[in-house]
Amino acid sequence: MTVIVRALRAEDPLDAESVVRIRRAVAPHLVTTPQAVTFNVARANPAQHYLLLVAEENATVIGTARMGIVYDSPLPGQAFLSLQVHPDHRGRGAGTLLARSAEEHLATAGATSVHCTVDDTPATRAFAEHRGYHPSRAAHWQRVDLAGGALPPRLSPEDLPPGVELRTAAHYTDDPRPVFAADAEVTADEPGDVDVDLTDYDDWLSHTWHHPCLDRDLTMVVEVDGRVAAFTAAHTDGDTRYLSAMTGTLREFRGRGLAKLAKNESLHRARTAGYTDAFTANDAENAPMLAINQWFGYEICATEIQHVHELA
Fold first, then answer.
1. Beta 78-85 vs 60-69: how paired, if at all?
2. Comparing C-alpha atoms, which of 97, 138, 96, 98 is closest to residue 117?
3. What is the pTM of this model?
4. CA within 20 to 30 Å of 168's CA: 212, 245, 272, 290, which one?
5. Would you write out the chain's pLDDT as a tens digit for each of its 312 residues?
6. Residue/partner pairs of 87-92 with CB below 8 Å, 24 or more apart
7. How far apart are CA 65 and CA 269, in angstroms?
8. What distance in Å separates the CA atoms of residue 233 and residue 244, rounded to the nearest whole number?
9. Are 177 and 228 in contact (CB under 8 A)?
10. To 10 degrees, what angle do helices 13-26 and 34-42 make?
């Protein structure tokens, strides 16, 4: 049968469910839901030129790709591409069609460099390099078993250092701006090929704070003398999967174990809430966070290689 590529039909729930099915088959560590798939399409900033494509064969979705401009990067022309083809349907041209369509869309949107994460396997790396993508940084996905694994002891409020308080993100519902300021500083220091500057508070509210996977009761914020000092953002699928979407400490508070404190409390709460699989990802050269995750019992479950392609 012929493989065709088309845009996701947001009004068709089967499309979003198919995207989730493929992502989980290719990368079980990804935490997503059909609601999140359609949310990202509906809420995309126009400057992002966001597009979600699916590859279809015999009325069955067998592959998907999402792409867009990194509009909050100080370097213009940077774009991202994430592509997955179901393992049972590879070798039929779906990946090639998705990549070609994505690159055409991004070129029209003004992209000059396309950044794509590729599984660290010979087949997927060969596919990327054949299309002119060159390897760059590596990142490790890690998993900890919340159902059967042991977590570090949970601290009671009385055991916290003087002046330190733990709050959930729900505490900031009326005014999330302190969380935004912390996220902006931590994101600016995050290692990666593309720098990102979070400066638009309303845009952050729309895409980060109101994201359907963000669990505000499991997202923990550490305050020191009333100021936000560290946080860990928790994404969940409402079923079994939990993801540490971002963990960090503001510069002046680093070296005091505050990120550990936030993450430990969040993981304990996630286990109590019934989540069984906790995932996180770190740049392979981010030694401090890799050490923290090893302390929690995380083990590497997948490795991705960032690849870059310069568009003509």
1. antiparallel
2. 138
3. 0.94
4. 290
5. 699 999 999 999 999 999 999 999 999 999 999 999 999 999 999 999 999 999 999 999 999 999 999 999 999 999 999 999 999 999 999 999 999 999 999 999 999 999 999 999 999 999 999 999 999 999 999 999 999 888 999 988 888 999 999 999 999 999 999 999 999 999 999 888 899 999 999 999 999 999 999 999 999 999 999 999 999 999 999 999 999 999 999 999 999 999 999 999 999 999 999 999 999 999 998 888 888 899 999 999 999 999 999 997
6. 87/25, 87/26, 88/62, 89/57, 89/62, 89/63, 90/123, 92/3, 92/57, 92/62
7. 33
8. 6
9. no
10. 110
In this structure, which amino acid lies at residue 68? G
Q: Which domains can be identified in the chain, with CATH numbers? A: 3-111 (3.40.630.30), 143-303 (3.40.630.30)
Which is nearest to 224 in space by CA: 196, 251, 194?
251
